């Protein structure tokens, strides 16, 4: 392990606040290291606003201790390349290492090992104590012990309270290797490793199958290796490398580790995906991380990165929204509207589970945010099957119907209004015509119209009419977008709001207006606001080639990154959600969309790179576009592109890069193309077939 490896975080002591310990997570299971509980995806207990991730007791929550007089040298390491956390203690004559991971491809398994290694020629036994907090009971599950299975203990039980009356109460089945109080290396042994498995699933059959698979891989000595292989393949396929300051590279690897931990492994269509909450699967106990609910944080802040690097995982996120469409229809109906209104906070059913009514009723931009993720996915993949066969079109249509029913006609202005909302800026509520909300509604209607045409379906006239005539507030005199009707310049704002019109919404405006919006809102945005805000100001300044201003915004993010494991906190004072994937998603968008200038449009993937002074080079190895995987390398002087992989089924579209100057470069698989760094776009090649 090289010194200064930006993807390996090592410390000799743990942070004082246990919330800042690293998480080990896969798409189905998550825990924080040394914690006595874990969570399983989609397993919530509690009714409506009280619904929270059900605490499952965790056999993995233990810590090694050296007996007797030895006060050992300790080290703690999170290796983002292998997806493994380790704790090592060194005493005179031996070392003991505890390794812990959530298996990336066998998603119902978590495992740990303890290795004791003798360092001298002594022949006395060496004992390590295991301090465990594990008790096989839970405040959220009605757990019953079952018979042992292949040497494992077994408990199972249902959550106590369903999310909606009469709704399902998921069952959890757990098998685990019994954990002794101590382990001893015999006098004649030099080194020995003990392995411990935990399998958690929704059925007895799946829990047993996973535990057995784990045992047979252990017998072959390849369980950990199979995890590392699956995780390394994911990291390679989503590789992002920067030549720049070490802190920036470390932040980048930390963000990739925590965000990629949350997504489904490749080729796992059988595993249902349950969405990503702001603090991920390891958090979400009652009273923590918004109870593990899913917000726009997933669709607006995390999704674009996942889409660019791993469209199959992006599709799984959209399928979570499709599965909760019925709940969203009920939300709209209860509020007196048509179509579907996605909940501000979503758990298993799509019904509103926000404990405070005002957000569920007023912060309605979430519905447009969800549809925008569908639009970006469609532009990037042209996957019509999602819409034709897998429920996507029903969702698009329901969102368009909701927006139409939520608008009212203003005789006075001869425009449609959306009244009584809370914008992304949660310091204001009950406002009319939030610029962001109305712009996202307009975008929803335009996409629904385009999608209907692509699917050869009739387009309701009102969709086009309302998209054309919805009001998006604009101040002609000052040439900027007021946040809502009656906003007065200088009024404090909680977080990125109007600046989102430029990116990700790409609402049509001149560079002058874009600049004015940034100038207007940057000084009045609360410095204590949530971490993702500054990344959107950074993207805006990069767009305008104001590199120093972009960098000073991006630097603000660093006060939300904690040491030593690069765990993000929502607010710089340490409050709010921890392991704040939303902030990490914003940060990654600065790298993946800000530095590159990538913009997903209907006709192509635009690029227009801009690097702050400290950054010399950016290499993204897994840009996915229309069935192609591209390796894109950018320096100030040169851009290099190579198609490294193409999908066969459905066949990838042949691509070309086109510069604004008119030069065209066909992109063939396995052939690298380079040209001077300049604005342009990647598009389907009109003249080539594969």
Automatic annotation (TrEMBL):
One of its GO terms (cellular component) is cytosol. Its EC number is 3.2.1.107. It holds the Pfam family Glyco_hydro_65m. It comes from the Eukaryota. The keyword Hydrolase applies. GO terms for biological process: carbohydrate metabolic process. The keyword Hydrolase applies. GO terms for molecular function: protein-glucosylgalactosylhydroxylysine glucosidase activity. Keywords: Glycosidase, Hydrolase. InterPro entries: 6-hairpin_glycosidase_sf, 6hp_glycosidase-like_sf, Glyco_hydro_65_M. It is an enzyme of class 3 (hydrolase). It catalyses: (5R)-5-O-[alpha-D-glucosyl-(1->2)-beta-D-galactosyl]-5-hydroxy-L-lysyl-[collagen] + H2O = (5R)-5-O-(beta-D-galactosyl)-5-hydroxy-L-lysyl-[collagen] + D-glucose. Residues 282-488 form the Glycoside hydrolase family 65 central catalytic domain. Catalyzes the hydrolysis of glucose from the disaccharide unit linked to hydroxylysine residues of collagen and collagen-like proteins. Belongs to the glycosyl hydrolase 65 family. This is Protein-glucosylgalactosylhydroxylysine glucosidase. It comes from Poecile atricapillus. The gene is Pgghg.
């Amino acid at each position: 392990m090289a010194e200064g490896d930006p993807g390996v975080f090592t410390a000799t002591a743990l942070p004082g606040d246990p919330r800042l310990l690293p998480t080990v997570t896969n798409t189905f299971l998550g825990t924080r290291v040394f914690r006595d509980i874990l969570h399983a995806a989609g397993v919530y207990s509690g009714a409506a606003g009280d619904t929270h991730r059900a605490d499952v007791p965790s056999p993995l929550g233990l810590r090694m201790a050296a007996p007797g007089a030895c006060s050992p040298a300790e080290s703690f390491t999170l290796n983002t390349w292998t997806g493994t956390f380790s704790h090592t203690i060194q005493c005179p004559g031996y070392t003991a290492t505890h390794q812990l991971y959530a298996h990336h491809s066998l998603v119902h398994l978590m495992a740990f090992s303890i290795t004791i290694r003798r360092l001298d020629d002594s022949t006395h036994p060496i004992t390590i104590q295991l301090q465990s907090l594990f008790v096989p009971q839970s405040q959220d599950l009605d757990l019953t012990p079952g018979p042992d299975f292949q040497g494992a203990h077994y408990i199972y039980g249902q959550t106590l309270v369903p999310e909606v009356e009469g709704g399902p109460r998921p069952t959890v089945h757990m098998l685990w290797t019994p954990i002794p109080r101590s382990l001893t290396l015999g006098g004649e042994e030099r080194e020995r490793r003990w392995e411990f498995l935990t399998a958690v699933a929704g059925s007895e059959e799946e829990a047993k199958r996973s535990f057995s698979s784990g045992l047979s891989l252990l017998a072959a000595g390849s369980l950990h290796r199979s995890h590392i292989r699956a995780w390394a393949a994911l990291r390679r396929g989503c590789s992002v490398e920067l030549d720049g300051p070490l802190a920036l590279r470390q932040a980048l690897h930390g963000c990739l580790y925590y965000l990629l931990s949350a997504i489904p492994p490749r080729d796992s269509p059988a595993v249902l995906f349950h969405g990503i909450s702001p603090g991920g699967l390891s958090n979400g106990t009652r009273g923590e991380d918004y109870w593990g609910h899913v917000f726009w944080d997933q669709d607006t802040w995390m999704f674009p990165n996942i889409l660019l690097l791993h469209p199959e995982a992006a599709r799984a996120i959209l399928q979570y929204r499709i599965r909760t469409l019925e709940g969203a229809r009920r939300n709209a109906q209860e509020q007196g509207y048509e179509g579907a209104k996605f909940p501000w906070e979503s758990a298993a059913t799509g019904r509103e589970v926000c404990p405070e009514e005002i957000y569920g009723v007023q912060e309605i931009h979430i519905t447009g945010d969800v549809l925008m993720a569908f639009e970006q996915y469609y532009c990037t993949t042209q996957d019509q099957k999602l819409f034709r066969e897998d429920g996507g079109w029903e969702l698009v249509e329901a969102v368009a119907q909701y927006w139409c029913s939520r608008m009212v006609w203003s005789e006075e202005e001869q425009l449609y209004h959306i009244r009584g909302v809370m914008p992304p800026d949660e310091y204001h509520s009950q406002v009319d015509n939030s610029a962001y909300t109305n712009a996202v509604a307009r975008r929803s209607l335009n996409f629904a119209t385009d999608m209907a045409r692509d699917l050869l379906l009739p387009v309701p006239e009102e969709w086009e009419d309302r998209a054309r005539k919805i009001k998006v507030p604009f101040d002609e005199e000052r040439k900027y977008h007021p946040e809502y009707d009656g906003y007065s310049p200088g009024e404090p704002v909680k977080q990125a709001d109007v600046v989102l019109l430029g990116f990700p919404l790409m609402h049509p405006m001149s560079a002058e207006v874009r600049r004015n919006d940034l100038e207007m809102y940057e000084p009045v945005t609360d410095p204590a606001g949530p971490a993702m805000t500054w990344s959107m100001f950074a993207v805006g300044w990069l767009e305008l080639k104001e590199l120093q201003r972009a960098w000073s915004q991006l630097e603000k993010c660093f006060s939300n990154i904690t040491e030593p494991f690069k765990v993000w906190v929502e607010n710089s004072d340490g409050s709010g959600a921890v392991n704040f994937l939303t902030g990490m998603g914003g940060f990654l968008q600065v790298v993946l969309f800000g530095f590159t200038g990538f913009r997903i449009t209907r006709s192509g993937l635009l690029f227009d790179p801009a690097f702050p002074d400290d950054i010399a080079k950016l290499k993204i190895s897994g840009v996915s576009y229309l069935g192609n995987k591209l390796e894109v390398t950018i320096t100030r002087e040169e851009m290099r592109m190579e198609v490294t992989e193409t999908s066969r089924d459905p066949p990838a579209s042949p691509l070309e890069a086109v510069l604004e100057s008119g030069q065209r470069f066909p992109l063939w698989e396995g052939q690298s193309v380079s040209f001077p760094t300049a604005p342009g776009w990647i598009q389907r090649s009109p003249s080539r077939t594969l």
